[in-house]
């Protein structure tokens, strides 16, 4: 992330001394509200026309992630969350939903065609909704989301709750890595097979939970020292802007969503 004071993209109304937060990429420089609308519209459209709309939304998400220069990060996040969850759902539905057509058997478990079909249908809905959400997370940084919420006069406490929720998993992952590094420094094996990793993971839960609880007090003190609870108008040295391009894009997206919904209704009637 970069900041550009008085850059060509900065509006003339930007107050003196305030720096525009940019990402040096036209896609990632979209206003966070535009990114949220993009994710919402793609998620809704994916649910309207069956499999082909899910495939189209996944393809569009891949293209947008590539244009944003985040294709690798998007694929890693998408594969470890949405795709993995979809595969697990298909497997569980195939194993535990009964039916007359048995595809495979192992011990007391039968994989049925009816269960697999139900799982695939459910997984398609998750792919359609989850893929645009992962894309939206990859296109906007937490800092830009926070600045956009402040620009839209969202109460500071609500803004903090949103940003804290977005920071929760990265912070816990960082703490987990620090705990595992400390264990390795003490000679504890943590990088062998899955059984060794599982055995090393369980003892890290207690210090991880305790450190997370203690960090709450530190954050509260840091917020108070910065006047978080004081009344009055807020000012910021950094800003994000809502350009004409963003407003045009949102209008196009809402229009596309309206056309898709009307088209779905017409197909139902016909």
From TrEMBL:
Official protein name in the record: Cobalt/nickel transport system permease protein/energy-coupling factor transport system permease protein
What species is given as this protein's source?
Georgenia soli
- What is the organism lineage in this UniProt record? Bacteria, Bacillati, Actinomycetota, Actinomycetes, Micrococcales
Q: What GO CC annotations are associated with the protein? A: plasma membrane
Q: Does the keyword Isomerase apply?
A: no
Q: InterPro entries, from UniProt?
A: ABC/ECF_trnsptr_transmembrane (IPR003339), ECF_transporter_component (IPR051611)
List localization entries.
Answer: Membrane
Annotated membrane topology is:
Multi-pass membrane protein
> Where exactly are the transmembrane stretches of this chain?
36-69, 81-108, 120-141, 251-269
Keyword annotations: Cell membrane, Membrane, Transmembrane, Transmembrane helix
